[in-house]
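Hey, I was hoping to borrow your eyes for a little while. For a while now I've been wondering how a particular protein folds. The fold is given in discrete form, as structure tokens running alongside the sequence. Could you read through the record and tell me how the tokens relate to the sequence? Take your time with it, there's no hurry, and the full record follows here:
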Amino acid sequence: MKKRNCKNYCMGVMGPRLVIKVNNSCNGKCYFCVGHNNKPLPTVDVDVLAKKAIELEKYPNVLILGGEPTMYEHLEKLVKKIAPYKKKITITTNGSNLSCLLPIVKYLDKIIVSIMHYDKQRNKDIVGVYLEDEGRLIKTFASINPKLKLRVNCVMLKSGIATIEDMKKMADYVKELGFNSLRFSEVTSPKLYDEDFVNISYLLKDYGVHQKDTVTHGCYLEPPILEEMFGIKTILNLTCILKAPSKIYKTELTEEEMLEEIEPMQNVDSLVLHQNGIVYNDFQ
């Protein structure tokens, strides 16, 4: 099985990357979102934010997040200012305001849209918003920028996409919309027993993608068999007991050994630039 990285994806070990959190506000309601408890922060002028991003020359790849970044009123200006100085710019969105990306599509390397179900009403029930224009703008984006990577991130839930058949239907849906890759993620939840948790690793065990210990063996996978099954590049983002207590398994390491393994690789190569202009090496 191909591993994107032998280390743990959620620890930030993904190459030099600058995460710009442009806001903390969101029009969605995903309970499992890492930012669902975001608190309001003061916001610096967009010129200051752009200047700080440009000055971080060792970080050529940028990921723009929120909150919901399309709610940030200066998003277009920010992207246009930093684009000449950055190699790749990615934006993650819930898809409720896709049209605001039209002026900046040509500057982007990737757009990631969070869609939790192929049925628009069930997706609305989970995410809290409808996909703007039912996603028809995705093909427009591709026509403007043929090199643009267009990905859907789907968090698997028992109340949403929960079976292999559901995964197939989701793949057919995103292909029809014009996306060229699909990522299925396990839910990250602080609950000890989350009734909505779907263990993707066990679900796909018969297909040879079982990953017993994601802490020490990596959690970001691209199993070729899934691309063959679904007809689209398919990525799995597995979680671990550190991020989701519902995923309980017997690790190969003792607790002390596990912590020693994890500590040195936490966010070793990524920075986070917050809307208040302060730079951290994690998501605090």
User: Anything to note?
Assistant: The two ends are 33 Å apart (CA to CA). DSSP finds nine helices and ten strands in the chain.
